[in-house]
Amino acid sequence: QVALRIRPMSAAELAEGARPIAHSTDEQVVVLRDPMEDSDDVLRARRSREKSYVFDVAFDSTATQETVYRATTRGLIAGVISGYNATIFTYGPTGCGKTYTMLGTDNEPGICARTLGDLFQSIEDTSSDTEYKVTMSYLEIYNEMIRDLLKPSRGCLQLREDAGGTVRVAGITEVSAISAEEVLQLLAQGNRQRTQEHTAANHTSSRSHAVLQVTVCQRHQGGGLRCGRLFMIDLAGSERAAQTQNRGQRMKEGAHINRSLLALGNCIKALSHQASSKYINYRDSKLTRLLKDSLGGNSRTVMIAHISPASTAFEESRSTLAYAHRAKSIRTTV
């Protein structure tokens, strides 16, 4: 499932005279207008300045956190408890609301808090003859290095592939949890360790991809063990140096961010035309190796793309819409 969310215009965009050029016409269609095309241009007079993109669900700037959660993620919880895998990830340019959608604020909690609350509630509501164990890990991929956000002192961790072909992080801290509040406390602790910096596009720009993994194992009395994994991923924003005005260290970070997002884009492109290309190159980045099952394997996956409606962000919005639209044709096999 691919969703698209348009954030409200920011004070900075309004101050520099930006006009809104993106809007959703109904629950699935997003229209983007090219602000540069001249209405007096005779050669292009018959060409439409607007382009429409169709998604599984589209949210305009008035959509609430609860609306986004119900339409994208709520339906995945029953599957995770039953032993299936699920992945939710946010994508889009720097400063377009990915972290807000995923983590939210104290007053408006995001997808992570709402999903965990419903997950533990569903476990409580199930029959008493089933035993559950919930574990979680939280990591970030920063400059192509993996850091444990629950125990940052462990340094750089490595990816390993087990006998079943599942990619795992060697030495990652896995914490058992018995309530949503406990997981949210650990999540808040991890977020304080996360790499953030000021850029011209966003005062608290995430400079890393953050991956929260929740594993739910269930054992029926006299039955076997079933495990479902839930990934919740807040990607770092794709960015142009001109837009973020980054130099030096920030610019190097941006290059690493864009490299891993390009690798992700290449995997999405190959998966959406799977008949023509049998080989999917997941090994181009740590991010794509970690997301191998989520993108092409045994997982139900939701991508929530984000754009700004401002005319000044037209190029970023157009490339994000094209990227997300391409992801719509991927079919995973749960």
From TrEMBL:
Gene3D superfamilies: Kinesin motor domain (3.40.850.10). Signal peptide: none annotated. GO terms for molecular function: ATP binding; microtubule binding; microtubule motor activity. ATP binds at G92, P93, T94, G95, C96, G97, K98, T99. Residues 1-330 form the Kinesin motor domain. Its main location: other. The keyword Protein biosynthesis does not apply. It comes from the Eukaryota. InterPro entries: Kinesin-like_fam, Kinesin_motor_CS, Kinesin_motor_dom, Kinesin_motor_dom_sf, P-loop_NTPase. Keywords: ATP-binding, Cell projection, Cilium, Coiled coil, Cytoplasm, Cytoskeleton, Microtubule, Motor protein, Nucleotide-binding. GO terms for cellular component: cilium; microtubule. GO terms for biological process: microtubule-based movement. The keyword Glycosyltransferase does not apply. It is found in: Cell projection, Cilium; Cytoplasm, Cytoskeleton. Belongs to the TRAFAC class myosin-kinesin ATPase superfamily. Kinesin family. Plus end-directed microtubule-dependent motor protein that regulates the length of motile cilia by mediating depolymerization of microtubules at ciliary tips. This is Kinesin-like protein.
